[in-house]
Structures are given as structure tokens and as C-alpha cells.
Amino acid sequence: MSDKITISPASGTWVVRAGGAVIGETTTALRLEETGHDPVIYFPRADIAMALLESSDTVTRCPLKGEARHYSIQGKSGAIQDAAWSYESPIEGAQDITGHIAFYADKATVEEI
Question: Which Pfam families match (predicted)?
Fold first, then answer.
């Protein structure tokens, strides 16, 4: 089985919550499916309260998507370190997630409402 990603519109309304706050809500989310991983919902930055996120020094690399910059959520109880990531300049085949941000399931709640 070869590694592959598929990006498609995520129907419905999606919300992300963390640190006792709603971080964002959108009707234009993207669903990214990658071989061997659970699907991930990507939110347009315009639908995220970016004032609650702070860029961290963490950068990771995916051979299918490129380099990801990580963000910490500044919540009421303090920072939730590296809770989100974004591919600022994804590689060919993943360009649709440009301008979007995703959240780690163990640090934020992402759900369809």
C-alpha cells in the first residue's frame, strides 16, 4: 500500500474548542484523509480566533504535505502547547490546505455540530 492523501470539503458545520473557549467554527472545513491515519479536519484561518493562538518553535515535516508550523492555544488556564498545526506552503498535491489550520485531538475538541 502506498502513502496517499485525499482532500475534500467536510460537509456540515464544524467547531473547535479548547481551554474552555470556542476557538473557531466553520461551514467550509476541509477533510484530509491520509493512508494509515485518522481523517483530519482543517479549518480556514479566517474562521479561527487566531488571537488565541501563538506560533511555537515546533516545526515538523511530512513527506506528503511538507513543513508544518505549530501553534499553542492561549487558554484561560494557561497555554496548551503545540495544539495546532498549519502547512504554510504545502507541497504539490496538498496545496488545498494552504491557509488552513488543524488541531491535535488530545489537545482540542473538533466536532461536527
Answer: NTP_transf_9
- Give bridge partners of residue 109 from the DSSP assignment: 17
Q: Please report, for the chain, the start and end positions of each structural domain, with discontinuous segments joined by +.
A: 5-112
Chain centre distance of CA 9: 14
**How far is it, in rounded angstroms, from Cα 78 to Cα 3?**
37
**Which single residue is written with the C-alpha cell 492523501?**
5
Range 5-112 has CATH code 2.170.150.40: yes
Q: How far is CA 41 from CA 53, 57, 77, 82, 87, in A?
A: 17, 23, 25, 17, 13
C-alpha cell at 77: 488556564
Share of the chain above pLDDT 70, in %: 98
Which value, in Å, is the radius of gyration of the alpha carbons in the chain? 13
Q: What is the pLDDT of residues 62-75, one digit of tens each?
A: 999 999 999 999 98
- Quote the pLDDT of residue 1: 40
